[in-house]
Amino acid sequence: MHRSSNLALASLLAICLSPAPVGAQDVRTGIAFREVWAYLMNGEERFLAEGMPITDLCYFSAEINVYGELDRIPDIRKLSGYEGRKHLVIAEIGSYSLTHFCLDPAYGVRPTLTEAIIDAAAPYDGVQIDFEAVPVRDRENFVGFLADLKKGLGKKTLSVALPARLDEAGDTLGYARIAAVVDRIVIMAYDEHWSTSAAGPVASMDWCGRIAAYASLKVEPGKLIMGLPFYGRAWGDVRPNRAYKHSGIESLASEKGVGVFFRENYVPWFRYEELVSVDVYYDDAESLSHRMRLYRDAGVGAVAFWRLGQEDPVVWSMIALE
After folding, report:
1. Of 44, 132, 168, 220, which is the active-site residue?
2. What are phi and psi of 214, to 5 degrees?
3. How far is it, in rounded angstroms, from Cα 290 to Cα 20?
4. Which of the two ends of the chain, N or C, has the fewest CB atoms closer than 10 A to its terminal CB?
5. Of 73, 55, 53, which is closest to residue 63 (Cα–Cα)?
6. Domains of the chain
7. How many beta carbons lie within 10 A of that of residue 241, not counting itself?
């Protein structure tokens, strides 16, 4: 739902950027959402535990090979113990040329790929498209591809994972344009800082607030899902740059004898000394609690977590389903 009111934007920003009180009660109190989505890697089914408050599971992922064919489709039978909705993720992460080849009707690949996705989705409740290398010149082709796919999927849910954007200038694919043809949009509100950037939070609170405020202006509430990261990153002159599971960060802190921990606007981090200084930013139960409250207070009714197996396990006791 497109709304251009500056007053509405200012109100949402005020809600998103207001600091929440710090305290143990924040972590213990259940934060209610209409939908809770989570990503699960094919081969990591052991991380999906009974009783997790997850309404929608995104199974990652089927891939597209160099010929524009659907490949490596996860076997849904491995999720037989999960009773919620299951979504097949179709991922094309790093190749702009392959994405162009698949989306541009001139190459004749798109109809065959669309039918292959529809066929693969037969046992699933929905499909999620995670194309993270869409050329700007192909944005209309991307919307056309999504429209064709939605028509073929019928009542099944079509969702799309989109990168975080702060304003119209950065929103080159068009949140509103895509929202008009799909059922859900997951905003990947993470990687504000990445492996080759300066050190900083994977998703700072102020940045997330601005993302949520902009997305709320472009995507109607029933379709908007805000993504949260479970992983952290490290930076240093010896290039220890990598993503960490929460358990891996705990092991790293123990191994390095870390005794002092810091918080930067609720996001925890620590530093340890080797031959260089290494800064590690990550999320724990408290920071995730504040981020979820930020989104909930901004009127967001659904969240998605990337990804199962990387989290502080305390987070699951903090979530309630409406």
Report:
1. 132
2. -70, -45
3. 7
4. C
5. 73
6. 6-231+284-321 (3.20.20.80)
7. 15
- b/e sequence 28-43, b meaning 16+ C-beta within 10 Å: eeebebebbbbbbbee
Query: Quick one: which of 178, 146, 151, 149 has its CA closest to 162?
Result: 178
Q: Which of 107, 126, 17, 19 shows the shortest CA–CA distance to 68? A: 107
- Check if 132 is active-site: yes
pLDDT (tens, 9 = 90+) of the chain, 322 residues, equals 333 334 444 444 454 444 443 333 334 459 999 999 999 999 999 999 999 999 999 999 999 999 999 999 999 999 999 999 999 999 999 999 999 999 999 999 999 999 999 999 999 999 999 999 999 999 999 999 999 999 999 999 999 999 999 999 999 999 999 999 999 999 999 999 998 899 999 999 999 999 999 999 999 999 999 999 999 999 987 776 789 999 999 999 999 999 999 999 999 999 998 888 889 999 999 999 999 999 999 999 999 999 999 999 999 999 999 9
> What does the H/E/C string look like for the chain?
CCCCCHHHHHHHHHHHHCCCCCCHHHHHCCEEECEEEEEEECCCHHHCCCCCCCCEEEEEEEEECCCCCEECCCCHHHHCCCCCEEEEEEEECCCHHHHHHHHCHHHCCHHHHHHHHHHHCCCCCEEEEEECCCCHHHHHHHHHHHHHHHHHHCCCEEEEEEECCCCCCCCCCCHHHHHCCCCEEEEECCCCCCCCCCCCCCCCHHHHHHHHHHHHHHCCCCCEEEEEECCEEEEECCCCCCEECHHHHHHHHHHCCCCCCEEECCEEEEEEECCCEEEEECCCHHHHHHHHHHHHHCCCCEEEEECCCCCCHHHHHHEEEC
Dihedral angle, C-alpha 156, 315, 267, 282, nearest 10 °:
-80
Structure tokens at 232: 């952290």
